[in-house]
Design brief:
- Belongs to the glycosyl hydrolase 3 family.
- Keywords: Glycosidase, Hydrolase, Signal.
- It comes from Halomicrobium zhouii.
- Its EC number is 3.2.1.21.
- It is built from 22 helices and 28 strands.
- By secondary structure, it is of the alpha/beta class.
- The protein folds into three domains: 366 residues, Glycoside hydrolase, family 3, N-terminal domain (TIM Barrel); 206 residues, Rossmann fold, CATH 3.40.50; 121 residues, Sandwich (Immunoglobulin-like).
- Helix 5 links the parallel strand 2 and strand 3.
- The longest helix is centred in the first third of the chain and has 18 residues.
- It is globular.
- The N terminus is likely disordered.
């Protein structure tokens, strides 16, 4: 029996609370008493069948799709469940063989490494593959073509590159994520892609992890907002053209591996899974995501690809996901090579485990024959129910129908150039980069006031690869001399500097610091030094680190420029917090630029010279040292005054805001009477330039709690631009369900409850409180 919480009337339930609010509260996995969190096994054998259809509508359209499934042989069905890596290195004869027999369901055209960076050449090659699929197979089914375009269509040499997700999170503007996704959708579709492996719904947790920069935020509710926006942008063109399927990834727990080591086992209590890991994925499902990608790692000792409980009980039954579940890269093979879950030579056994667990489509790095043969054999032997295969193929064909691939899957190569990139894309990229700029510290150095000489130095000053980060014309970042349109930070400063300002550049290596004398001489002659520091490009395991300190060579560079009289501004180009006491003590100002993309140079330069008033805010806590991680607000309650180096939401500006003490209505919250707390305050811009105020509250418990980790919640937020001398009233309506925790004993199988007690709301140095008078169950 689920624990209903410490107190409160049994009549006061989630249903009553939500009737009053009109909220669907999808992020709480509604109806937890029905979630069967007590068991480890899936609660059903299949999630649908060729005779009933997963959506159960029984429409004429469904009947037609079901008949197409029935018309396929087992081998052809297994082919449709195969998503194969192809690129320009595959000969035409070989491509014809693997596409035509048995007729594969989809192709990964190089992932982030397509066979060509020329968008027209890519479109032509994909058309060739589609022609083979539609004319040289018995069923004539077009393929779904997928790719990793995770920060704009950064897979070709023409398209603009946007900031990575961690920088988008720093904007605190989901609307920009939606716009970026729409641009990406249009650009991908023009090239012949219909499937984008994005967005990432993993919460930021441990910055040692090599994929940290691919996440938006450390708050589950904030991540949910960004994920919903990304799904909507990718899948809703708004102009009547075909859209691109999103893939919410990596379900689930991928961002929490032990010690930040990519794909290592993640040990996550059930309570944390429910409170912190699942909500952004449910938000993606609620937004209409067509596909979900499974986590390559393991959770609590079980590889996710082998977990019926995660893929079928949680994702299918509780979240109600009806789309396609796709594996990550070669993750049947990884059951053997990475997880030792199966023994050497047990690939066929892995096929049975993964398909029965709930994976519909396998992203195969190897020849498709091995997977197809295994599915066919297992179905014939009764090890995989044919209804399970029919269910997977139905979902795949339904996806293809929605994307228009059952009609004509080819694209007009003459229209590629006009649609793959527009001038508006660059304008949006500059806006997002500017909005992400986060001023960490400033000792009255910024903005610049007409310096005669500016020294620009550091390894990231003139390096497009570092400015774009990973997944840009290559998995680990730029892999060749081909570069997408880019203005580097050095170029941006030179373009923006006044005509009478001299901009000097002393490049430094990424490794050992060997430019001591050149940097020292130039710094001594400069009025201000801009040291562009941080990280290079990386992805996945190659980005795992043991320390968050800046590399030794960069620390030596800072020691040298600190000896000069000129103040030093540090610009950090990185996908995570890098730098501790030694670095910040040497800087007179520090600007976090994340991985800003094509327009990063102008965005940084315009911020340094004051054309842009920085308004970005950290989407994570910045720890004092590596020994403090994980320090996320979801790990332990850190009151803002007790934060490590910088708290979540931190960011300075070039103006001053005055806030009145927030008022709360009601201050005594009776859940039987209201489901919302309203926090209101006035904010005035007392400076001489427009500035952005992040209207939002960090809310945390002050007192007893049903659990021992009353972590900080990010309330509703909105970024507001306020003119000099202008005064605005901010109203934040905080739903009570935003404060919910999972009750119960150690196992975390209890109901969602909003505990009675006092809550503190922290808003930019101001604090207020309210009291919930009785515990309310949301189940």
């Amino acid at each position: 029996m689920a624990d209903r919480g410490r107190s409160g009337s049994p009549e006061l339930t989630r249903r009553r609370l939500l009737r009053a609010s009109g909220s669907a509260a999808p992020l709480l996995l509604a109806g937890c008493s029905d979630l069967e969190f007590g068991g480890d096994q899936a609660t059903d054998t299949t999630t649908g069948s060729a005779t009933s259809g997963p959506d159960g509508t029984g429409s004429t359209e469904d009947e037609a799709l079901r008949r197409r499934v029935e018309d396929l042989s087992i081998r052809e069905k297994a082919g449709q469940m195969t998503f194969l890596a192809l690129d320009a290195q595959v000969s035409e004869d070989r491509a014809r063989d693997v596409v035509a027999d048995p007729g594969i369901g989809g192709i990964l055209y190089g992932g982030a490494n397509p066979g060509s960076f020329d968008p027209e050449a890519v479109a032509s090659k994909l058309n060739e593959y589609q022609q083979i699929a539609t004319t040289e197979t018995d069923h004539g089914l077009g393929m779904v073509a997928g790719i990793d375009a995770v920060h704009g269509n950064a897979t070709n040499e023409a398209a603009v590159v946007f900031p990575h997700n961690v920088g988008m999170g720093a904007t605190w503007r989901p609307d920009l994520v939606r716009k970026r996704a729409a641009v990406t959708s249009r650009s991908l579709r023009a090239m012949g892609f219909q499937w984008n492996f994005s967005p990432v719904a993993d919460v930021l947790y441990d910055p040692r992890w090599g994929r940290y920069y691919e996440g938006f935020h450390e708050s589950p509710s904030a991540v949910s907002s960004f994920v919903s926006a990304a799904v909507e942008g990718l899948e809703s063109s708004g102009d009547g053209t075909a859209t691109v399927a999103s893939s919410v990834k990596h379900f689930a727990g991928y961002s929490m591996p032990d010690a930040g080591n990519d794909r290592d086992d993640a040990r996550i209590p059930l309570r944390d899974l429910r409170e912190k890991v699942f909500p952004p994925f449910e938000a993606g499902v609620e937004a209409g995501a067509e596909t979900v990608m499974a986590n390559s790692g393991a959770v609590n000792g079980t590889p996710v690809h082998a977990s019926e409980w995660l893929l079928r009980t949680v994702l299918r039954k509780q979240m109600g996901f009806e789309g396609v579940v796709v594996s990550d890269w070669a993750d049947i093979r990884n059951l053997i090579s990475e997880h030792a879950f199966l023994g050497h030579g047990q690939f066929e056994e892995g096929v049975k485990v993964v398909v029965n667990a709930g994976v519909d489509m396998y992203m195969a790095a190897e020849s498709p024959g091995q997977f197809v043969d295994a599915v066919e054999t297992h179905v014939q032997d009764g090890e995989i129910p044919e209804a399970r295969v029919d269910d997977a193929v139905y979902r795949i064909l339904r996806l293809k129908k929605r994307l228009g691939l059952l009609e004509d899957p080819t694209v007009d190569t003459n229209a590629v150039t006009d649609r793959v990139v527009t001038q508006g894309d660059f304008e949006l990229a500059r806006e997002t980069a500017e909005q992400s700029m986060t001023l960490l510290t400033n000792d009255d150095v910024l903005p610049f006031d007409g310096p005669d000489t500016v020294l620009v130095t550091g390894p990231n000053a003139d390096d497009p690869k570092s400015q774009h980060g990973g997944w840009t014309l290559g998995w680990q970042g730029l892999a060749t001399e081909t570069t997408p349109p880019t203005t580097t930070i050095l170029e941006g400063i030179r373009e923006r500097a006044p005509p009478d300002t001299s901009v000097e550049h002393v490049p430094t290596d990424r490794g050992a610091f060997s430019e001591h004398d050149a940097v020292a001489d130039a710094a001594a002659a400069a009025d201000v030094v801009v040291a562009v520091l941080g990280e290079g490009a990386y992805a996945e395991t190659d980005g795992d680190v043991e320390s968050l300190a800046l590399p030794q060579g960069q620390r030596e560079l800072l020691s040298v420029v600190a000896e000069a009289a000129a103040p030093t501004v540090g610009v950090l180009v990185a996908g995570r917090p890098r730098g501790g006491d030694r670095a910040f003590d040497a800087l007179d100002a520090a600007l976090m630029a994340y991985y800003p993309g094509s327009e990063g140079g102008p965005a940084v330069a315009r911020t340094l010279f004051g054309d842009v008033n920085p308004g970005g805010r950290l989407p994570f806590y910045w720890p004092d040292s590596t020994g403090d991680v994980p320090v996320a607000s979801t790990v332990r309650q850190i009151t803002p005054g007790d934060a490590d180096r910088f708290p979540i939401g931190h960011g300075e500006t070039y103006t001053e805001f005055d806030l009145t003490v927030p008022a709360v209505e009601p201050s005594q919250v009776d859940p039987a009477e209201t489901d919302t707390v309203r926090i209101a305050y006035d904010v005035e811009n007392e400076g001489d330039r427009p500035g952005d105020h992040l209207a939002g509250a960090l809310i945390y418990r002050n007192g007893s709690d049903p659990t021992t980790k009353p972590w900080i919640r990010v309330g509703p937020f909105e970024r507001k631009t306020i003119a000099p001398g202008e005064r605005q009233t901010v109203t934040l309506d905080v739903p009570l369900d935003r404060l919910a925790v999972v009750g119960g004993d150690v196992r975390g199988r209890g109901d969602w409850v909003v505990p009675a007690g006092t809550y503190l709301a922290y808003i930019e140095g101001q604090e207020t409180q309210f009291t919930v008078t009785q515990t309310v169950s949301l189940d």
